[in-house]
ABC-type multidrug transport system, ATPase and permease component
Amino acid sequence: MSNHILLLLVAVTLMVIEGSTMGLLSYSVKPLFDNIFVEKSSNMIGLVAIGIFLIFTVRGISAFGQRSITVTIGLRVITDIQKNIVRHLLGLDSSFYSRNPPGALIERVRGDSQALQSFASNALIVFGRDTFSLISLLSVALWVDWKWTLIAFIGTPLLVFPIRGLHILIRKTTRRARQSSADISNRLNEIFHGIKAIKLNNAEQHEHGRFAEEVRKYLKVQSHSEYGKAALPSMIDIIAGAGFVGVLIFGGQQIVNGDKTIGEFMSFFTALGLLFDPIRRLSGLGGNVQAAMASLERIYALFDEQPTIVNDPAPKTVTNPQGDISFNNVTFGYNNQPVLRGISFTAPAGKTTALVGPSGAGKTTIFNLLCRLEDVESGEILIGGQPLMEIDIVDLRNQISVVSQESALFDETIHDNIAFSRRSAEEDEIETAAKVALVKEFSDLQSEGLQTLAGPRGSNLSGGQKQRVIIARALLRNAPILLLDEATSALDTRTEQKIQHALETAAEGKTTIVIAHRLSTVRSADIIHVIKDGQVVESGSHEQLIALDGAYKELNRTLEQ
Ligand SMILES: Nc1ncnc2c1ncn2[C@@H]1O[C@H](COP(=O)(O)OP(=O)(O)OP(=O)(O)O)[C@@H](O)[C@H]1O
Ligand SMILES: [Mg+2]
């Protein structure tokens, strides 16, 4: 920050120099007219010419210096803001991401901060340079004749209210335009991710229509904002024109009377003429400030978002990761829609527990709660007798390997996707995980082997291949708690049997919870909990539950198919 301030000081100094050249330039018009043109003394020509050339040179150099510096500062500040937003976003809960789609968030990280950046550098330059130009030119005008100056600016107070109105309009329309821009990014994101579904459903026309509608909305609000910005300098023009005419009538008379020299009159008008540009730009700046504020508000709103899933003020490390996992009377729901209604069960230490139940029963939700991706509303979860809420979240997640239902691959190599779970892993450990999870079976067919790219969100791989990469990732993590959410659902029977075997070996000595819809997986579990309507309705081994002739037996019929 301190070197920003130092650079800024240099930039401001250069702006003062650049701004002052404007005053000097208009001032030099007086000797040009009075001494050269009126008195006709040609020996002054060279001197004034050199002077004017020097002024332009100084102006050029200082302009280059201050522009480069301010743009660099602007860029640095904005990239810092982007880094901070992303750090902040990484810390927010998954519920935040359910509310804010990726496309819109990308627009906020990139678009809003870029809008701010172009404004910041531009504003600094305009504000710095033009203020000093204004001061120097105004000094020349006042020096020539303060009454003329007063006449030239007499109309400006009339502008206060219209300008205020325009500012409000610009702020409002820009705010809408930024939101609209986020909606556009969101649509694009949905289109590109859903391209296959769009094609298969012949929905190209429909999607194009939706996109066109978003663009139309954007066009409308953004153009209103631009009209507002364009109107500001134009109003200045009209009022300035009136001032100009006033001075012309009043001052022209004084020259005719011989009270003022032509040089003074020309110098004044040069200053006044040159004053227009900085005044227009400065007044336009007000509009740009409003537009930038709209982006800034949106960035601040992101920083205002706070994670609700946070560490205990005095978090503890896991004391007994190899202990039993218990849910005691846990309730939870999304958006006030209850999912778990006082659920209680135990997954015994070192054993394999299966959770079965119909789709939407809340099985994946149980995993989310255990990893603290969501927090319970009431009740308690214990690991080895220790309440989940007092455990440091990072430490908690270090104890858990998850194979989740949704494939969570990145646009990186298969190798890096596996290593993602333990980035310090040795090469041979990654190789072993890839082998055990049968990733090698398909990666070896590729010339690049494990270095083959998985594609955006793993799209270069088949469903079963993705699942195997994710299993390899979980094996590599090798944590004491293993959570498998339909880990093998996308595999053919032969591959599933092989992986099942590998998973059983990996699960040895670990507290494992499996969610499965296939009998083969469930049957071998040490204990099975049947979940229905947000509660455990039956618990026991496969044989016990069949003998019970209840919900499990009923479910079993579907499992068998
Ligand atoms: N992020 C979310 N926001 C809102 N509701 C959700 C969210 N995730 C899940 N739900 C709802 O919670 C309920 C339980 O979902 P969950 O994913 O736990 O089911 P499940 O038992 O794993 O089902 P399946 O066997 O189909 O995977 C469902 O009704 C679902 O619609
Ligand atoms: Mg699920």
